[in-house]
Amino acid sequence: MSATSSQYVHRQQCAFCKSEANSDEHVLPQWFDKVLAPRRHEDRTFQCKISTKASGVSSTVVKQRNGSPRSKRLKVVCTKCNNEWMSVLQDRTSSIITKMLEDVNFLITTKDQAILAAWATMTAMTYEFDDPDTMAILETERFWFRSLRLPPQGEWRIFVGRHSGGSWKCRLFHLGYNAFRVDNMPLVLEANSQKTIIGIENLDFMIFSTRLESSSVSPFDQSPSDFSKYHGLIQLHPPTGEDIEWHKSKMRPDAEVTQVAFKHADNATLIGQLRIFELQRRYSEKTAKAKVDKS
Questions:
Q1: Quick check: helix, strand or coil at residue 20?
Q2: pLDDT in tens, 249-267
Q3: 63: how many CB neighbours lie within 10 A of its CB?
Q4: pLDDT tens-digit profile of 73-110?
């Protein structure tokens, strides 16, 4: 069984427990309609994955879906999860995000940061199911989250920032990919890393995770604090242990959000499908054989 199919084996099973997935979940909460501008025709959702050609050139394949992300519903959770702990988390998050959208200065306490990080994690985990081919978060990680309401252990990094312009006013972006080092090629084809960006008016939440140790893929190629300072973001997870003044976050142009969305790896870590190595191996063998024949 492929990694993708094993990840998605619970099409009829709740993403966060083993009950039947019998409840439609809005990827973005319905309370957004009360505080956000009317839905726009140009609102989009994006699912992306890396494809790599035999030449070694990688490119990002983007699946764009028309329609507002606020209309996106996925039947991947059970009624109990949806109406109980997920609903509670949505309620706790609504007042914090509403304040952030009002553009008033206030302290985002460590407790509020934890709530925002949990909400962002839940949204990323749910939205992954929109395209099984790009799924990178494990079932064990989702079960961990349901139990503790905390981002899973390991390399999870979550940030929030502000942007100007209209490109990210209502956007869902997800990229699932393979990240691996040249000296440790994987034997199984599966996505082990992901980035999700949630655009809400002038806010953008960025959720990154990887199971690759010592990854040099952004943002794991630097400390969370360095990444947040460089991009003008507020670090939500790992927790900083300090309250943060919201107005100290930088207003960035839309282009900076887009740049983070499509920035991948340096040459120390490769992103792509294992198929590239098989094709390169066959090409090398044919080339070597041709040289021998000529000699």
A1: strand
A2: 789 998 999 888 877 644 4
A3: 14
A4: 788 999 999 999 999 999 999 999 999 988 788 999 99
Residue 131: which of 4, 1, 260, 2 has the closest Cα?
4
- Distance between CA atoms of residues 181 and 196, nearest Å: 22
- Write the DSSP string, 101-155: HTT---EE-HHHHHHHHHHHHHHHHHHGGG-GGG--S-HHHHHHHHHHSSPPSSE
* Local structure of residue 285 (DSSP, 8 states): H
Decide: residue 175, CB within 10 A, 0-12 exposed, 13-18 middle, 19+ buried: buried
- Return the number of other C-beta atoms located less than 10 Å from residue 159's C-beta: 25
Residue 142, token pair as written in the block: 């989702």
Nearest to 100 by CA among 243, 253, 28, 203: 203
Structure tokens at 281: 């191996």
Query: What's the whole-model pTM score?
Result: 0.79
Buried b (16+ CB within 10 A) or exposed e, 189-212: ebbbbbbbbbbbbbbbbbbbbbbb
DSSP letter, residue 71: G
Structure tokens that stand for 173 in this block: 């972006």
Q: Are 276 and 54 in contact (CB under 8 A)?
A: yes
Distance CA 23, CA 82 (A): 7
**CB atoms near residue 176 (< 10 Å):** 25
Give the pair of three-digit tokens for residue 121.
Answer: 């994690």
Q: Taking the CA of residue 54 as centre, how many other CA atoms within 13 Å lie in the half-sphere pointing to its CB?
A: 7
Q: Which residues, at least 6 apart from 47, have a Cβ–Cβ distance to it below 8 Å?
A: 62, 63, 65, 130, 131, 134, 174
91: amino acid identity, one letter: D
Strand partners, 162: 203, 251
CA 238 to chain centre: 16
